[in-house]
Amino acid sequence: MPTYIVLLGPPGAGKGTQAQAVSQTLGLPHISSGDIFRENLKKQTDLGKLAEGFMNRGELVPDDVTIAMIRERLSRSDAKNGALLDGFPRTPAQAEALSTMLSEFDGEVDVVPYIKVHEEVLIERLTGRWTCRAQGHVYHEKHNPPKVPGSCDIDGSELYQRDDDKAETVKRRIRVYLEQTEPLIEFYRQRGKLIEVDGTKPIEQVKENLLAVLPDTEQTNDLGA
Ligand code: AP5
Hints:
Blueprint: E1 3-7, H1 15-26, E2 30-32, H2 33-42, H3 46-57, H4 63-74, E3 82-86, H5 92-104, E4 109-116, H6 119-127, E5 129-132, E6 138-140, E7 159-160, H7 167-181, H8 183-190, E8 194-198, H9 203-213
Parallel strand pairs: 1-3, 1-4, 2-3, 4-8
Antiparallel strand pairs: 5-6, 5-7
Helix pairs in contact: 1-9, 2-3, 4-5, 6-7
BIS(adenosine)-5'-pentaphosphate is lined by residues 9, 11-17, 33-34, 37, 54-55, 58-61, 66, 87-88, 90, 94, 125-126, 128-129, 138-140, 143-144, 164, 173, 199, 202-203, 206.
């Protein structure tokens, strides 16, 4: 049976940071809806052009487009043993669609770690975030600085600040999260899938706490496929 993990939490909770840290250990690909949209934007695909306005305004890309994109990604061979989902689902309609599509892959959402962080912390985290241009590795100027300022420790590429990390857009993203995504906490709690993880601890400690609640997965998934 494949294993599907959904990382839930507000913008800046640390979903991407933790997914990058644990995906290799779990042997599951890290699938970030935001990263896929940004990749498409960089390549100026139709999907990227469609998503751009929504992202810059801090709003959600329409459900039908997002669901189709994730369905395509989950059907690739590197996700045959499951996936670590970051940023999807984000609305009740996306959560229902995910359940349906996973049943087609003979799976289900196994566990939903909810990375809990108070709202005041989020703005400081996002406005201080630096992201690697090549592969989206994430840093923070205070909490997780790169060894060489402006350069990714892992692949040496340039670090940049995301357009949607400006304070005004961050506030809008948090509002959108509260209105459209927060209901998923109850959705998954009622299904017995939700596990709360304190996201205010240092990055390494959040990682340890997260790994402690995640299922043991086979280490045989070929992430390079
Ligand atoms: P997306 O890229 O998914 O953004 P997000 O959910 O807002 O999440 P972030 O990437 O901002 O935060 P994160 O939780 O990953 O935090 P991170 O680890 O980077 O989406 C962007 C846009 O795409 C959306 O607004 C929407 O338009 C569109 N979109 C995406 N998915 C969609 C969907 N399903 N439906 C519709 N539209 C969609 O950490 C943040 C900072 O904090 C970093 O600097 C990090 O170093 C630091 N940090 C992390 N952990 C800690 C810690 N424990 N202590 C101190 N600092 C920490």
